[in-house]
Amino acid sequence: MIHGSIDLIEERCTSCMICARECPTWCITLTSHQEQTVPAPGARPRTHNVLDTFSIDWSLCMYCGVCIEQCPTDALVWGGAHVPSADRLVDLLHDREQLAPDAPRG
User: Fold this and answer.
1) Which residues contact 84 (CB under 8 A, 6 or more apart)?
2) Domain extents for the chain?
3) Of the four listed, 30, 43, 64, 86, which is most buried by Cβ atoms within 10 Å?
4) What residues contact 2, with CB distance under 8 A and at least 6 apart?
5) In angstroms, rounded to a whole number, what is the distance separating the alpha carbons of residues 54 and 71?
6) Mind listing the pLDDT tens digit for each residue in 53-77?
């Protein structure tokens, strides 16, 4: 497997923050909010996290794979394409749309 980029499979992400906490360079940032689920009759209400934002700063990333290894839901996976170089640092900050497995690289 080529370790060129990291893809986010958004529907698997539970916003647990493990990837951001375990990253040695703190290149991952995410925000979320809690929503209450409608319980089945007789059950108590439950809350779950909903992902609002997710980004990776490729100017900081070491491509070590710690975030991928630590993700309990396999929401982060190695992507095949390398992250293209950029003339500006701000262009190396990719959000969740750019981290989708089917997003164009470059």
Assistant:
1) 105, 106
2) 5-36+47-95
3) 30
4) 78, 80, 82
5) 14
6) 999 999 999 999 999 999 999 999 9
